[in-house]
Write a structure and sequence with these properties.
This protein has 127 residues and is α+β, with helices and mostly antiparallel strands. 14% of the residues lie in helices and 16% in strands. A three-stranded antiparallel sheet has the order 1-4-5.
C-alpha cells in the first residue's frame, strides 16, 4: 500500500460514520462484529427466531469489489462529494451492515480513498 505525501484538499471520511477525516499516514481496517451479548446461544426457540428475524430485516452490503457504486455507505469515501447522507429509500448508509472486512487508505495521485476486500466481516464468521 502506497500513501499520499500531501493531505487531500477536502476531508475524506471513512464509511459508516466511523471517522470524519482520514489521515494520509494511515490505512484503516473497517470490520464489524456482534456485541458480546449476541455471542451466547439463544435460551429458547423464540429468542432464536427473534434474532433471525432481526438479522433478516437488516440492510446488508456484501460486494467483494468496493467502489462508490457498489458500497453506498462509502460513496463519500470514494470521492462522490454529492452523495446524500441517506439512501433513496430513506435508510441511512450507516444502517447497512457490512458483510465484508475492508482496508481503506489514501493513495498517491487520487483525490479520494481506495479500498481492498479482506474477506468476510467478523460477525459473519461468528454466525
Amino acid at each position: 500500500v502506497k500513501f499520499r505525501k500531501s493531505a487531500p484538499s477536502t476531508a475524506v471520511p471513512l464509511p459508516y460514520g466511523l471517522l470524519n477525516e482520514m489521515d494520509k499516514r494511515y490505512a484503516y481496517v473497517v470490520d464489524c462484529r456482534l456485541a458480546r451479548a449476541w455471542s451466547a446461544t439463544p435460551p429458547d426457540a423464540d429468542a432464536a427466531r427473534a434474532f433471525a428475524k432481526g438479522l433478516a430485516r437488516r440492510a446488508v452490503e456484501g460486494v467483494d469489489v468496493p467502489s462508490a457504486k457498489t458500497v453506498p455507505a462509502a460513496r463519500r469515501t470514494f470521492g462522490d462529494a454529492k452523495a446524500p447522507d441517506t439512501l433513496s429509500d430513506g435508510i441511512s448508509p450507516r444502517d447497512a451492515a457490512p458483510l465484508r472486512r475492508r482496508l481503506y487508505w489514501l493513495p498517491p495521485g487520487q483525490a479520494a480513498a481506495c479500498a481492498v476486500d479482506l474477506g468476510p466481516a467478523a460477525w459473519v464468521d461468528e454466525l
